[in-house]
């Protein structure tokens, strides 16, 4: 790598977790993306790409067709689809110490590509691992593993009444993906964790699938 014998360096995951002798077998798996840096918090000089491989969660079969937010006959599903997208922002900004900012933009400028719905917030942001978790179909927010930073211990699902801004609209971790593909053909998530300078981007495309 062209490292001088007297130069210090670290090897980290894309979540900026330093690889050590103790955690090597846990963090270094086939296909994992690693950074070779001068320090854990070194700014990246160029953008990097990380491949995400996953199999559909078993809930795809076990709970298929249940609790779909647009399943009720005679109801306009679009508000429910938008509510699912907003729910991500509500969860992300729930612990903000300052102002919670959530914007919904409808973009129809063909010069930027196809029309799009953009939901923007100033929440806690997601690491690459959390984006990976979000991508897994029907992986409930209450059973996600790894870096999903949320405490839902003792959670009791509210009665089916109008929810408040502090409640969870989405429950089974499927609504966000279904909402995206109900409204359009692809999802692009750009997120910067509050405690990191790294910006992560995830693209899910019906065409790619």
Count the DSSP helices: 5
- Across the major sheet, the strand order is 1-2
Q: Regarding CATH, which class of the largest domain?
A: Alpha Beta
Rounded average pLDDT: 76
Could you give a short account of the major beta sheet? 2 strands, antiparallel
Task: Identify the notable features of this structure and list them briefly.
5 helices, 2 domains, elongated, 209 residues, two-stranded antiparallel ribbon
Chain-wise SSE layout:
Layout: E1 10-13, H1 24-27, E2 34-37, H2 59-62, H3 78-93, E3 102-107, E4 116-121, H4 128-135, H5 175-183, E5 186-191, E6 200-205
Antiparallel strand pairs: 1-2, 3-4, 5-6
Helix pairs in contact: 3-5
Q: Would you write up a description of this structure?
A:
With 209 residues, the chain is α+β, with helices and mostly antiparallel strands. The chain folds into two domains: 1-54, no CATH class; 58-146 and 160-205, 2-Layer Sandwich (Heat Shock Protein 90), CATH 3.30.565. The protein has five helices and six strands, in the order βαβααββααββ. It has helices at 24-27, 59-62, 78-93, 128-135, 175-183, and strands spanning 10-13, 34-37, 102-107, 116-121, 186-191, 200-205. The strands form three sheets. Strands 1-2 form a two-stranded antiparallel ribbon. A two-stranded antiparallel sheet has the order 3-4. A two-stranded antiparallel sheet has the order 5-6. The two termini are 36 Å apart.
